[in-house]
Amino acid sequence: MNVxxxxxxxxxxxxxxxxxxxxxxxxxxxxxxxQESFISIxxxxxxxxxxxxxxxxxxxxxxxxxFLKHLCVLSDIGGENLKRFSSELSSDFYSKDFEFIFRDKxxxxxxxxxxxxxxxxxxxxxxxxxxxxxxxxxxxxIRDVIMLIMFGGLAxxxxxxxxxxxxxIIGAMIGNIRLLEExxxxxxxxxxxxxxxxxxxxxxxxxxxxxxxKLKVYLPEWDxxxxxxxxxxxxxxxxLTKFDIVGIxxxxxxxxxxIEVSFQFTTNSVVERKGKLARDRREILNRQHIxxxx
Length: 294
Known about the structure:
Helices cover about 50% and strands about 5% of the residues. The chain is mainly α and about 290 residues long. The chain folds into 2 domains: about 5-15 and about 205-290, no CATH class; about 25-195, no CATH class. A 3-stranded mixed beta sheet has the order 3-4-5, with helices on one face. Strands 1-2 form a two-stranded antiparallel sheet. The chain is elongated and about 75 Å long. InterPro entries: RE_BanI/HgiCI_C, RE_BanI/HgiCI_N. This is Restriction endonuclease.
């Protein structure tokens, strides 16, 4: 089959359903697109530590869970951090208020959701892949987490974990517009760089799953659940070589098929790694009469 024949049946571009799944998994464009609105809210929310609530209500472009997502990304706080914080802080703030200093004044705040024994996580806060695209109202949980991330570093209590003191520092910059804007834009440059590899990895996983599902439709008697082939190793048998997809024929009889999935968007490190492994894998497989598809 030549290239012209292949084009007649091949998909030249990503299928729509795969593109939609990838869109759900990538929030960086959404954050970049609403960055100015996010900065604007913090810029005008300097009267007191609760001014952001009114500012957020007046903003059409941002909604509470997206505003919170901005704070989480900038502070490098993920779902596991939030889950741990809710567990660690619940005992401290069950019977007393959170006290902090904002612009030389002392304020108190009640973490109501912690008093109710709530567990903070990405799903309940609307921060997961699908949830972030659906506007949430300003629930008590979202309000509490926003207050913690913005002002946790300004706490007067010695019981606040070091991680909160180090990461929850955005509130300390409110009122200093220049410092705030520089910090946010610098952080987003950093975030964009580190998420490039994650985006490539996520897209690769989506492509693999898409191809696996198609193979299961066309070859229903085959097994595509494995990642390795018996007897194929690149380290003298200590571990089996991993493939993106392995095709096992009916009755588990050779020949097996090792399938490597590649796509247009990738990073240099992925290209180098794949290229380095490809020749060795092909030689090993060919000696045992096993097909490798790439």
